[in-house]
Specification:
mainly alpha, 378 residues, 3 strands, 14 helices, three-stranded antiparallel β-sheet
Amino acid sequence: MRIPRRYWRNLDWPLILAVLALIAIGLVVIYSASHSQLVAVGLSPFYYVQRQLFALGLGLILAIVIVAIDYRAWKRWTNLLYLANLLLLGGVLVIGKTVFGSQRWVRLGPLSIQPSELAKIALVLVLAKFLEKKENAQSLKGTGQAFLLTLIPMGLILLQPDLGTAAIFVGLFFTMWFVAEANPKHLLITGLTMVIGALGAITLSIKGWVKIIKPYQLTRLLVFLDPYADRNGAGWNIIQSMIAIGSGGFLGKGILNGTQSSLHFLPANHTDFVFSVVAEEFGFLGSLVVLALYAFVIWRGLRIAALSKDFYGTLLATGATSIFFFHLIINVGMTLGIMPVTGLPLPFITAGGSTMLTSLVAVAIVLNVGLRRMKIMF
């Protein structure tokens, strides 16, 4: 479906430019973070950059297709996409590739796909369709059904195990439920119930009565309270991340000059802890620019959600924008040592094909809603 030229003026170009700026920064940071490690093992210093560019190309093609199709037409495919993603999440537990103790990836030819990333988009689509009817958000029965739609993929993701992505699902559910004009009393009761349940699971795991949370996950959840209690073990990542961020100063050390990164003190420096590299090499000022770009992307997304022609579009844009918000808060909080290490990526900047694809699809959803917000376009 081709977009008529007169519609292009309604495309949110400031949002697109902000996303492109984040992608450009990401490519530079990935190159700098992985350069010394790749050269040390005899690989091209552009190895991860090339993979990121490949994912970017696929993502841009997919984003153009998504923007070209009226978002209201997606409803007929939502249930099928949701079920297909559940099959992928189930399949990854059987034939998935295990990395660092987590079974999250499925190999499809030259690509490694992380179904849990795609599941975020599937959840946004299915919740937007279901909560479009406000009675579903305001009744106990409807709320239970919406929570079940969230709980099934979240449970499969917890089995991988992947606590970070599961936390994103909780955030998406509550955000979209709130926007759908949920009963405040139901919101409060559900939120308190989940907090009590989480604390109960942690307590049972600490006591060793029931192994709901695996030992290494429990360590990650607790070590951020005092990383120096195990400075050479579980606390190492957080300590090195904080050193990297603090050593960057106001203007940073410059590209390829980050000592914590280039000397291999900082682990996962092109993935989980990529923001630490940003802070070390670009300093406080560079970090502020990156955070400002994310804030701008989130603001434009919420603005489009508020201006949407229909409630379905509002829910879609809100859900897609929330993905960026929760990833930003958790990832940056993790690198600063104020949140547990969960392994969540930083959209557009972290090296990873699935993350790039999911992020571009989320942006395309927001752009689609904004593109068709005016009556003249229908």
